[in-house]
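User: Hey, quick favor. My workstation is busy. Could you predict this chain's structure for me?
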Amino acid sequence: FVENFSGQWLGARKLPNHATEASVYPDWSTPVAQSLTKEMYLYFDEFVKTDRPWTEFMTADFNFVDANTAKFYGVAAPAGGAMQRMEIKTDKRVGFAGLAGFLASSSLPARTSPTLRGGTVLRKLLCKEPPPPPKDVPELGGAGGFDPTKNVKVALEQHRTQMSCAVCHAMFDPFGLALEQFDGIGKFRTTYSDGSTIDPSGVLSGKMFSGVEGVSQVVATDPRFNECVAEYLFTYGLGREVKPADATALKTVEETWLAGATPSLR
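Assistant: No problem, here it is.
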């Protein structure tokens, strides 16, 4: 169940085949990808097998680390070959959005993509599908624009000067920009390759937040977050997409679940 459900929903099963540019990310390898995939499964598994509140999925501060991934989290490699559960307070990350596997899988081969990361948060965690991009959208940084591999935030600001792009990007880019302190394979950083300091602040619906902790709090307190996992589990249980006729049953499931003292996934 963990591998089938979270593998599809959260993208873990795609991570072993995630492509990166070796010249940009020399620390990425097949063993690293496999370890980070396993961590995503183990992280989700903790919420399946315990009564931990589901809302903590975005804010819990623990990781599963082995020798392949220890340097990603800034800790010494644990003894033995098995992954160890660690509560690391110095890695500047929390929750699912802080997992290196999520951060890598929602990036491009040679750089981060705030749009891809933010869109993933919106689609997968809040069940909100953004509108499709308009036709003939220019490539980010193309035709004399700023090189997004050096400073993707500047390139995005130029891109959003076009009104056809700005409206949609405002829905999800703030999530992705707040996660920019993690590079394309999920390692923490404070500057872009052009030397400029990364500003991880964002604004959505007039609410300001900053960094992965800010993203995590915004998502965890959004009513759509609980509704979204209920809808995905409902879909998984039925083996088909939710239809309008299912609305009453799905609402009953959500209300009954959330009426408990501790609405856990288990």
